[in-house]
Design brief:
three-stranded antiparallel sheet, globular, binds s-citryldethia Coenzyme A
Length: 430
């Protein structure tokens, strides 16, 4: 604990207060304002939390200016190149890379939790076949708390770990079934002889009529996409999970809240929005028109897949995603005009002063939609895959919050600008 402080001075009363400054292991220090209201009668004010640290965490570090993303100290580029999703899940949950035995034990625990209660099967039939799969995910994941009462006591470390394993393990099954239901195909059950990514692809694209043969390039690309989406500090959906969990809500309900938040087009829904945007642009001759609209303050149109609250440099995930994009399209022998359009849009945007000055670079969502489309996923499934991968990050951050001895319910205050007190007026006097 440093003894650094920052002094706050009221220029009317002349009062001043010394606020403690806390240093992390790296990155910006924080001004500790926990006692500010008690000492000054003032709240801080930071809608959108652009300058607010909501918690202490050891899981993920982002340096937005340098374009750095690390999980437990390991750079995302190294994890994407050398690790696999199960190992990254273990790292996020436990803080260290697993030994070979630890990894085998973890993979076995996950593999043997991939099936869901058979009654859940009936839940899907309550939805219309054309329901958006994200609506199905919010509903079905929220319903898990009705089936797994033996892992909802958040104060029991064993139940917390079981709930964590169940959520990570069951999301591929639930997500694949959301897709199967939308296309009217029979649900495929998990297979214990396949890897996490292979199993998900098998449940999604396999059919009972013939054996499923995993494609190693597509499985590796799927696994890498899961790694790139696993966690990302205190983003909107993770903060949603933390706030929901701070009330003591069960983990299944918290993750359902995270899925709901991720769905927004400004957040995880952007990958779907990017593909819709590229299809709307249609041809590179129309790019200048859309870049112009994106710069027009009176036009709500934004270049989806560009910009980020934290990254004011290239999102390191976007670079890995672009590389995977070329690999997958090469493997499939596809020559997707949307990829050419995306590369041209990126080039034009990054030469435009508006995007350069505002440091609006491609983010993780810019290329992911093109890969997923090439792999056969409908656009409506893109954010479902993001939610599937981010579940481990939500769960790891939820666990960290629950296990933080200083944890208390999250209850922000406000700047009130509404009516001051006034007397009730009977309706015949209004
Ligand atoms: C994800 O937080 C995370 O970590 C999220 C995520 C994760 O892994 O969890 O990384 C995943 O959500 C990635 C972001 C995906 N969203 C999009 O691609 C949607 C398009 N991007 C924008 O909606 C926007 O850039 C945000 C939401 C991503 C960031 O919004 P901010 O930080 O609130 O920035 P802002 O809206 O205040 O924009 C700053 C300026 C504004 O202009 P001025 O008012 O200053 O003149 O940049 C402009 C904006 O108009 N701007 C854009 C733009 N993004 C910002 N202009 C055109 N096109 C864009 N995409």
């Amino acid at each position: 604990m440093s003894n650094k402080t920052m002094t706050l001075t009221d220029n009317v009363s002349g009062d001043s207060w010394d606020l403690p400054v806390l240093d992390g292991s790296t990155g910006p220090s924080v001004v500790d304002v926990r006692k500010l209201y008690a000492e000054t009668g003032h709240f801080t004010y930071d809608p959108g939390f652009t300058s607010t640290g909501s918690c202490e965490s050891k899981i993920t570090y982002i340096d937005g200016d340098a374009g750095i993303l690390m999980h437990r100290g390991y750079r995302i580029e190294e994890l994407a190149e050398n690790s696999d999703f199960m190992e990254v899940c273990y790292l996020l949950l436990h803080g260290e890379l697993p030994t070979a035995d630890e990894k085998t034990g973890f993979e076995t625990a996950i593999t043997y939790h991939t099936m869901v209660h058979e009654q859940l099967n009936y839940l899907y039939r309550g939805f219309r076949r054309d329901a958006h799969p994200m609506a199905v995910m919010v509903g079905v994941v929220g319903a898990l708390s009705a089936f797994y009462h033996d892992s909802t006591d958040i104060n029991d470390p064993h139940q917390r770990m079981v709930a964590s394993h169940r959520l990570i393990a069951k999301m591929p099954t639930i997500a694949a079934w959301a897709y199967k239901y939308s296309v009217g195909q029979p649900f495929m059950y998990p297979r214990n002889d396949l890897s996490y990514a292979e199993n998900f692809l098998q449940m999604t694209f396999g059919v009972p009529a013939e054996p499923y043969k995993p494609n190693p390039v597509l499985s590796k690309a799927m696994d890498r996409i899961f790694i790139l989406h696993a966690d990302h500090e205190q983003n909107a959906s993770t903060s949603t999970v933390r706030i929901a969990g701070s009330s003591g809500a069960n983990p299944f309900a918290c993750i359902a809240a995270g899925i709901a938040s991720l769905w927004g087009p400004a957040h995880g829904g952007a990958n779907e929005a990017v593909l819709n945007m590229l299809q709307q642009i249609g041809h590179k001759d129309r790019i200048p028109e859309f870049v112009r609209r994106a710069k027009d303050k009176d036009d709500p149109f934004r270049l989806m897949g560009f910009g980020h609250r934290v990254y004011k440099n290239y999102d390191p995930r976007a670079k890995v995603m672009q590389k995977s994009c070329h690999e997958v399209l090469g493997e499939l022998g596809l020559d997707d005009p949307l990829l050419e359009l995306a590369v041209e849009l990126e080039r034009i945007a990054l030469e435009d002063d508006y995007f350069v000055d505002k440091k609006l670079f491609p983010n993780v969502d810019f290329y992911s939609g093109i890969i997923l489309k090439a792999m056969g996923f409908p656009t409506s499934m893109f954010t479902v895959l993001f939610a599937l991968a981010r579940t481990v990050g939500w769960v790891a951050q939820w666990k960290e919050m629950i296990e933080d001895p200083s944890q208390r319910i999250s209850r922000p205050r406000q700047l009130y600008t509404g009516e001051t007190e006034r007397a009730y007026v009977p309706i015949d006097k209004r």
